[in-house]
Structure prediction request, 757 residues.
Amino acid sequence: MKMNKSIFALAAITALFSFSGCSDDINYDSTESEGRVLLVPSILNDVKADVTEAGTGSKKARKAHQRVAQTNDELAAATTIWISNSKGAVRKYNGFSQVPAEGIWLAADNYVAEAWTGDSVPASFEHKHFKARVPFTIAGGSTIQLNLECKIANVVVDVKYDDNIPTMLSDYTVTVGHKAGSLTYTADEAGSGDKEATPGYFMMPTFDKNLKYTFTGKQLVDGTTVTKEGVIENAKPGYKYTIRVKQNGGNEEEFGGALFKIEIDETEIEVADVITINSAPAISGIGFDMSEPLVGEPGTLTEKKLWIQATSAIKSVELACPAFDDLGIGGTAFEILGMNQNILSQLQAKGFKYQLVQHTGEEENPGFEEMKITLGEEFMKVFGEGSHTMTVTVTDANGKVGVGKLNMILTDAVVTTVAISPSAATTWSDHVTLTGRVMKADATNLGFKYRPQGSSEWQSVNASSAAGSRRRAPHRANVGDTYTAVVDGLTPGTTYEYMAVCDGFEPANAETFTTEPADQLKNASFEDWDTTSNKYYLICKSASDMFWDCGNQGSSSMNKNVTLPATDKVHDGTYSLKMESQFVGIGSIGKFAAGNAFVGKYLLTEGTNGVLGWGRPFTSRPKALKGWIHYTPGTVAYTATGAPDIVKGEPDKGIIYIAIVDGTMSSFNDEKWPCIVKTKEGVYFDKNGSNVIAYGEKVFEGATAGENLVEFEIPLDYKRTDTKAVNIIVTMSASKGGDYFAGGPSVMYVDDLKLVY
Prediction:
């Protein structure tokens, strides 16, 4: 039996085409030394995202559909795409949306395109991993399309029962796994009759190529246990294995005192359904960058050309700008394909023209259309002194809408001040990057003035760089260049005024920005505790005020709290935080648990495993985390595969780490968290993840000096400076391998954490 598949192709261009065969005069700026690849990434998933039915059926069905759609959106956003040649990587894109719609220009050469996405975990009902690798060659002056299909890299297993099994057995399960992880399929995950099976996903480790399975159940007649074990040898990624449990009617070998049989169906994963999500039409400038404004004195703008590309027929193209009122066409907007001849003649007299190129005669690319729009020099004179934005709105046959904006700044000013958006990542708590723009070629000694809003005294700073000019400011720069200066020593959470200046010129008005606050962690001295529960302590006044949490809810099932308030070792105040790693259980029944604390919430206990939501909202960007600690490592008594540097018989290691992360969220039981940790499935925080803005850690490999707490500091390494902080993660553990239940009887005290700005 074949599994239904879906292709989710978030591609900008979906067909191959060659510009050289066109009879039009559009110049795409191709050269003999460069070619272009139209990259079409896709994910070949094994769950059909029937989003058109998301609003129908049962509540459970609706949730399932919504979860599938969200999962594919998340996979697309999390896909990493590399293009490499013999010298190494030449391009990298984080997410499908970063792949340029107009194609990627590359020097003529041989390349390999690779992509991967998802979570590479040993065994999971939710997390999958996808990979793609396609070699290709670019010739000078050519354009090619490359389909980069991310195929599932997991071995997929589901379980199905004959309809009569529930009438014969109870408590029946199938456990499937390898040396790195396993899954247990209960009746909820198994298929039977019209009930669909829930597939499990396995990443095969290099040291184990087989999947072992164990079927167990109790006969309803006498309560005896039925057991059967088997092996799926050399399980292959990209294949689905269905374990079928049947009642054989006496025709097959009996096991467990009853007549049952197990069959294994092997099926290569194939694609049956194609769902293509095309991008909106792309609008770009020919020979200039539309993301940068056109600048100059009124009446000096020259001819400009725009290029539109659409994956299906172009239905309408509208140009709009308040300045169009002066064109004499009776309004501030016009639609190109539907305009009457009178308006077209008036526009043509101003130097406006367009050319629509259709590819209906091309077998492999019947839908692709493109248009070149020429805005002549006379047309550009309609834009007088001031700032103007011309909006180009394109609608295609699929109903997709693309919007491009051409901004213009026309003034007699020598320099202009570039406004700083409140969301700009260039504004920190203690420094900011100011930007100005050169409007006249005789601008010299570029710089800025700034002051706290309401102050009467200005401070000055010279420009540090001028983009587009080979010469460093404060020397003369070219018209249109931007120049910058970094201002340090600012006060957090303060609004400032600033203006761009140069020799002989100072504007009449100033712009403003507000520095980030220097926020601190809540309850960072660990004075607040909730002891109202008879079973476990919480690190907060009440559950409604929770910022920190720990593993006490899990360990309390064995009447132990691994994290407690302490009074014997305190830096300041009444309490410190004491984390004590220990075996939690009775006799041999139980598990090693690390003393720990984290910013977030303990969500659920799964057997002896936990599900944790890590992170809290946080919009500041500190430089470091300071605090006070006393650490006494025990001798490692428990080890695990995932904790290779934790060696039995050697001293344990403690760890504290901090991460500033973006707004990427994961869901669990209708709650969203920056990171969901699932110890049962081996799902942990990834310090190298694309959502990480900054990270810092400190591993404690020996006992701290003396009997009292000592100070420590963890600097933050900012991997991304182009993004504002959205959430913060802080995790502390007396045993570094605690995520894997590895370590020894170690004790860590922490007090008075402080973020440094």
